[in-house]
Structure formats: C-alpha cells, structure tokens
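This part of the workshop introduces the protein records we will be handling. A learned vocabulary of local backbone shapes supplies the integers on the structure line. Getting from the letters to the tokens is the skill we practise here. As an example, a complete record with its sequence and its structure tokens follows.
=====
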Amino acid sequence: MGKSGITAISLMALLGVWVMAASLTADPMVLPYPSEVLSVIAEHASNGKLWFHMGATLQRVLMAFALAMVGGGLLGLVLGQSERLNLWLDPWVTVLLNVPALVIIVLCYLWIGLNEVAAIFAVALNKFAMVTVTIREGVRALDKGVGEMAQIYRMPLHARLRHVIWPQLGPFVAASTRNGLAVIWKIVLVVEFLGRSNGVGFQIHLYFQLFDTATVLAYALSFTALMLVIEYALVQRWERSATAWRRA
C-alpha cells in the first residue's frame, strides 16, 4: 500500500473516532457530527464569510512569515559568521525564544495599539528568534574546505552562493520555512482572538462566546485544511528539492 493510501485510511480512522465521540457525547454543543460542521462550512462559504475571514488570516500569516524569515535569516547569517557578535547577542536571542507568545502579543498591543501593525509585528517577533537560531546553525555547518576551494579558484560571488553556500544552507532554510508556517498561523489566530475585528481567530472568539462548537470547528478545520494544502503542495516539494543533493 502506498503512502497516499495509508494517509487516506488514517484520516478515515480519525473521522470514525470523531463520529464515535460525537455519538457518545450526544450533545452538539460539546461535539457536533462531521456532517453538521460540513453544513456550517458550506453555509459560510456560500455567503462569502468564510473566504473573507480566511483571506484576512492568510494575509497576516504571509506578511508575518516574510518579516520573520528575512529579519531572522539575516541575523542568523551574521551570528553564524561572527563568534564575537554571537557571544553578545546570543542571550538576547535566548530570551526572545523563551518569552511566551501571549506576552509578546499583549505587549505589542499595549505599546503599538490594537492595529494591524501590532498584530503582524507580534507574530513575526515570535518566530524571529527561531529563524535566527536555525540559520545560524546552518551557517556554522557549512563545509569550510569547500568554501576555501571556491576562494582558491576565485569563484564569483553569485556562483559561490548558488553552488557552494545555498546547497548546504538550503535544507536549514527549508526546515525553518516549514516550522515557521506551522507555528505562525497558530499565533496569528491568538492575535486575532485577542485584538482583531476579522480573521479566523476573531470568528472563533465570536462563536466561542455563543457556545457554537460547530462553527468554531468549521473555521478551525477550514484554515487547517488550507495550511495542509500549502504544506503538501508547496513547502514539502521545495524541501525535497532543497535536499535532493544529499540523496544523489
């Protein structure tokens, strides 16, 4: 049996567990049946609410992800090449790694205000240190012998980046990308839950107050499905491409 077949059977088993749990609770306010959740998804998709709020959340995810990857990636490159600078800044990175995401979100809202800038900055800051550490370790893992050989043969900078540095650093960037998306979209929901007027997190907050479990699950599962599509269709394919040289 192929990987896709096993995945399909596993998901069907999970769906079966859901149906059994819903039957045991026998209360849609606690756990509705999958059919009830699908009905809510269809209703909100048909009137456009689902697409509007998912679009708002996806935009925040992509903007925060880009900021975290660019900022953290650049700092990681610098710290990986300079031991002295890393000695000074490593405690800062470690502190940022261990500050709870909720604290950063609340502080950004208090300092910047309940606006879009604060929301995106809070999410990016939560991922920034993780990207920095991953890229820093990637730079440290570069083969110095290959780099010295490139210098001896006076390889141009663009060729060195493409043929020497990127093949070795690519897997670290890919891992950071994959983990970053998985973490960032969850933090975005918290940001929206606490201080935004649209998005999936806002909808979850709204229907949580109404004790509407079916709609909470509808929005949560819809965006989860979107992120899974991005994961399997884009991120994993790129990760396999970035690490292909190791399997050659």
In short: Residues 138 and 172 are 6 Å apart (CA to CA). Residues 32-247 form a domain with the MetI-like fold fold (CATH 1.10.3720.10). The first helix runs from residue 3 to 25. The chain has one domain: 32-247.
